[in-house]
Amino acid sequence: MRLALVGFGVVAQAFTKIIAERRQEILKRHGLNPRIVAVIDQGGYTVNPKGLVLERLLQDKASKSTVTEEQFKNHDLQAKISLVKEIEADVVVETTPTNLKDGQPGLSYLEKALAGKKHVITTNKGPLALSLPALMELAEYNGVELRFSGTVGGGTPILEFGKRCLVSDKLLSATGILNGTTNFILTRMEKDGMIFDEALAKAQKLGYAEADPSLDIDGFDTACKTVIIANWLFNRRVTLRDIKITGIRNVDLKQVKDANTKGRAVKLLGIVDSALKVEPKEVSRDDPLCVEDTLNAVKFQTEYAGEEIIIGRGAGGMETASAVLRDLIAIRERMAEEIMA
Ligand code: HSE
User: What CATH number is given to the structural domain containing 110?
Assistant: First the structure.
């Protein structure tokens, strides 16, 4: 299967490493032989229809900060976006940084790839939070898959759990701790008495926070994930504009300590029920949803099975790369079904 990678940051590099290390196993278990035929990064692009050498890509990125060779240096964004439509690839894997203002450049890459009838995998929350209903329509219209497992929960299969495992049930609501950075901050405030800024600095040092940490603290990252859950699992055609967002900027030590004395913890929750909102709320320590540090957890209320909870690490390069591979396997299964039909 021919892949074009758009963006070659932490997640794309981790994904490349997994393919390089597990090539035989992936072929044997899933009949999948991924061949990376193009990589676009900030320096330009590199293309080889026969397949790029994965180890070389990783080495070049480490030594030169770009995989682009001299003759392909190109800083013209439009040229790169056009390349995505024209390139002969089955799947485009888009992992450029999240931009919540207008979703760019990720949004244009996704639109071009889908319009070019390529299956798409993305870990980029911005375009989805702003335009998921339109992107889903575009994918359907062009008869291709748009998959984004890694946008919610990192490697933890929160979207698959709700979609596949609970397929026979009816989802009534979802309540989730969806942001590792804020959960870490709130946990350290509670356990170590750290002040907010100190806890944030530690979360940044550990590499969990977004490049602009206000996306975490002010609830936008949680809101993006809540919007994705609402669309994908609850068929709500909503965007970031439809969600009421309150972050944790004004949560102080006293509030955290007060909750603690009542056997509760303050958590930033993304909630999909009759409303759509993000807000800090007290959660009982006895509730399995009450996970600590950078863990994510989502509780689904279902009609028949009652409460179902999934917990796991919500961020990290390798974790998120495993979600990209999961999406790729799902696409491969669809392609195989279409050939058999
Ligand atoms: N900044 C995000 C978090 C990264 O802290 O959860 C994963 O989406």
Answer: 3.40.50.720
